[in-house]
Design brief:
heterodimer; A: 481 residues; ten-stranded mixed sheet; 11 helices; 24% helix; B: 250 residues; alpha/beta; Rossmann fold; 10 helices; 28% strand; globular; Fe-S cluster assembly protein SufB (chain A); SUF_FeS_clus_asmbl_SufBD_core (chain A)
């Protein structure tokens, strides 16, 4: 037993690889949140009137809202006046050629494995890189433009495609949807925009990489993906942050809209700094992700591997409006040390014969708490609809917790909703079996956990899956008690 | 090769092994028989290093070194193999990956180069013939959905891949039909050499028709109460364990 505890401690104290800070001149506005700050952000970005209106409207509504407290999370008070709402690496705002990019920045993203130079890039992945409040570089823009695909920073989209933004912004996540979405709508500074025109299959993976660098700031980015009739895109999102003792707030919004027969796959590997082993520091991650399958037979699938953040509050959801539309949610959420996660999905069936699947694999270690929370709602008119949910929890010791909060509402008699749930502790017999074959406990746990999460990992694009497997190994190995 | 001296072991405060003495030399096959609850599986688990058992007295040396000091994985890499009575399932982990990791851990320990995927598959095909394993088994997850017989064959297959110096077969015959029994026994016999040894833990004589032991030990209430040649197994088959019990009950 002692030996295992020792391994446990060694490994769970493994360092967060991405915890460095880039020393780069940053333009940060005064801390605090009020109408002037919102006007300032909008002015700094040179936004058109409709955007300012959108922000002010959100802010007004947000002021009347309260922080949600229904999640199974202990959230320390967050002083929103102590945060700066805009931080941008200077010399920006956007680099057209590599020569203009600050070498510090290139170096930073090389260290993170996200080279900004296109020729060095993973073949077939276009990246929009967001550091603190702004997008610093989007690769492969021209290649994509040839197919009519728009992939650019949100700011650029506001400038160059205001009609599209006006039409779709806030459609999936209305400004007053919830406290954090409203806050994001008021102060968001950048993010990615993607439009896939009718009948186009996007030839490469699109990706946004988020990096928090500056201290005492929050990151509030916004992603909007619109897939027109018969189009397809696979979208990846990655994120990291420096190690700091203070907590930092990240409140993002992602909106996806699919038209007739369009399909969007959205994959996330969330690796924000989780805090140290005593629970000090780490990112508070409050994210609203929602997609609307507006067209018939359209499909949205969310796949997430959540290993980072001190607190995760996130429910990627699908509103299945179009008849025969399909929603999927596949999740692996890992918590260790003092991390807390309350995550899951909402599937709202509105159209006829709509289908949804929820696969959630929670893995808890240390003194962490890991909750699945999900809603499956079938409206009366959504006849012939189906949902299958499977929520599994794996506990690595006796000091962590796993919880499941499923909500099911079915409004008609021809629909079928299934829910399966299991909770298990990692088997000491399994570990011993591996040991007896010469495999040490660390490697054994990595193998067992990856096996457990396999169903979800298999849904990730290849390069991402490898990354995610390594991440699981780092986050958890040896956490058996 | 293996020397057990005056070994006492208990689990959750209950003493199960009460003074075991056993000497095993290279090239030998030892059968350990005995009624249920006599401590046979405990002995196998203690040798492999399962944590649940506390060694309260005695010593074990393996290849001249103290065995009890070593972690289970180190014992394995130094050539001690346990064929489990109940091989555990590991969902989502392909047998091929599991075994490749295992083989390469063994090779690293010996200072050998790790096998490439190609070399590994070649080795695997060779060894599969030995135990009549089907590719469909190695393509599945570790023991997941295997029948009782398939699990046991899989243990012998892993043994063939790892080429241990000392193999401990913990009731490998239980739950096997006669054909599977023969396959398993052939596998074990094919691996016999003057440098390797085996401990065969079993209830029944029938496995010993195929794997012929040099010695048969009877374990009863945590002690070896009788040791003889292979004819002892036949005697047990005929008379049952009652005469052992009455001899040792005072």
């Amino acid at each position: 037993m002692e030996e295992q505890d020792k391994i446990l401690n060694d490994v769970t104290q493994g360092d967060y690889k991405y915890g460095f800070v880039t020393d780069i001149e940053t333009d940060i506005i005064e801390k605090g949140l009020n109408e002037d700050v919102i006007r300032l952000i909008s002015a700094k970005k040179g936004e058109p009137e409709f955007m300012l209106k959108f922000r002010l409207d959100a802010f007004k509504k947000w002021q009347k809202m309260k922080m949600p407290n229904w999640a199974y999370l202990k959230i320390p008070p967050i002083d929103l006046q102590a945060i700066s709402y805009y931080a941008a690496p200077k010399k920006g705002p956007k680099y057209e050629s590599m020569d203009e990019v600050d070498p510090e920045l290139i170096d930073t993203f090389n260290k993170l494995g996200i080279p900004l130079e296109e020729q060095k890039h993973l073949a077939g992945v276009a990246v929009d890189v967001v550091m603190d409040s702004v997008s610093v570089k989007t690769t492969f823009k021209d290649t994509l433009a040839e197919k009519g695909i728009i992939f650019c920073s949100f700011s650029e989209a506001v400038e160059e495609h205001p009609d599209l933004i006006k039409k779709y912004l806030g459609q999936a996540v209305p400004v007053a949807d919830n406290y954090f979405a409203a806050l994001n709508s008021a102060v968001f500074s950048d993010g990615s925009f993607c439009y896939i025109p009718k009948g186009v299959r996007c030839p490469m993976e699109l990706s946004t990489y988020f990096r928090i660098n500056a201290a005492n700031t929050g990151q509030f980015e916004r992603t909007l993906i619109v897939a027109d009739d018969d189009s397809y895109v696979s979208y990846l999102e990655g994120c990291t942050a420096p190690m700091r003792d203070e907590n930092q707030l990240h409140a993002a919004v992602v909106e996806i809209i699919t038209m007739d027969r369009a399909e969007v796959k959205y994959s996330t590997v969330q690796n924000w700094y989780p805090g140290d082993k005593n629970g000090k520091g780490g990112i508070y991650n409050f994210v609203t992700k929602r997609g609307i399958c507006r067209g018939e037979s359209s499909k949205i699938s969310w796949t997430q591997v959540e290993t980072g953040s001190a607190i995760t509050w996130k429910y990627p959801s699908c509103i299945l409006m179009g008849d025969n539309s399909v929603g999927e949610f596949n999740s692996v959420a890992v918590t260790n040390n003092y991390q807390q996660a309350d995550t899951g999905s909402k599937m709202i069936h509105i159209g006829k014969n709509t289908k949804s699947t929820i696969i959630s694999k929670g893995i808890s270690a240390g003194k962490s708490d890991n909750s699945y929370r999900g809603l499956v709602k079938v409206m009366p008119k959504a006849t012939g609809s189906r949902n299958f949910s499977q929520c599994d929890s794996l506990l690595l010791n006796d000091t962590c917790g796993a919880h499941t909060f499923p909500y099911i509402e079915v409004g008609n008699k021809s629909s079928v909703v299934e829910h399966e749930a299991t909770t298990s502790k990692i088997g000491e017999d399994q570990i011993f079996y591996c040991n007896q074959r010469g495999i040490d406990t660390e490697t054994a746990i990595g193998m067992i956990v990856n096996g457990y999460a396999k169903e979800v990992l298999n849904k990730l694009p290849m390069e991402f899956a490898v990354e995610a497997q390594k991440l699981l190994q780092i986050s958890l190995e040896g956490s058996v008690g | 090769m293996l020397s057990i001296k005056n070994l006492y072991a208990s689990v959750e405060g209950m003493e199960i092994l009460k003074g075991i003495n056993l000497e095993i030399k290279p090239g030998e096959v030892h059968a350990i028989m005995g009624p249920n609850g006599s401590g046979k599986s405990t002995l196998a688990s203690v040798l492999a290093g399962k944590e649940d058992y506390e060694i309260t007295a005695g010593e074990i040396t393996f290849l001249g070194e103290d065995l009890l000091d070593k972690s289970p994985e180190l014992r394995a890499k130094e050539g001690l193999f346990l064929s489990f009575q109940y091989p555990v399932e590991i969902p989502g982990v392909p047998m091929v990956n599991f075994l490749k990791t295992s083989v390469n851990e063994h090779r690293k320990h010996k200072g050998l180069k790790e096998l490439t995927a190609g070399e590994f598959l070649k080795l695997m095909r060779e060894k599969m013939d030995l135990v009549d394993m089907h590719t469909k088994l190695t393509n599945r997850m570790v023991n997941e959905g295997f029948s009782g017989g398939e699990k046991k064959k899989n243990e012998i297959f892993q043994m063939a891949m790892l080429e241990p110096k000392l193999a401990i077969l913990d009731e490998t015959d239980s739950g096997l039909d006669i054909d599977a029994l023969r396959v398993v026994a052939n596998g074990v016999n094919a691996l016999k050499s003057p440098e390797t040894a085996a401990i065969v833990v079993t209830h029944y004589q029938r496995l010993l028709d195929y794997i012929v032991p040099d010695y048969v030990h009877i374990l009863y209430k945590g002690k070896i109460v009788k040791t003889a040649g292979k004819e002892l197994a036949l005697e047990l088959e005929e008379k049952g364990y009652d005469w052992i019990k009455s001899d040792n009950e005072k």
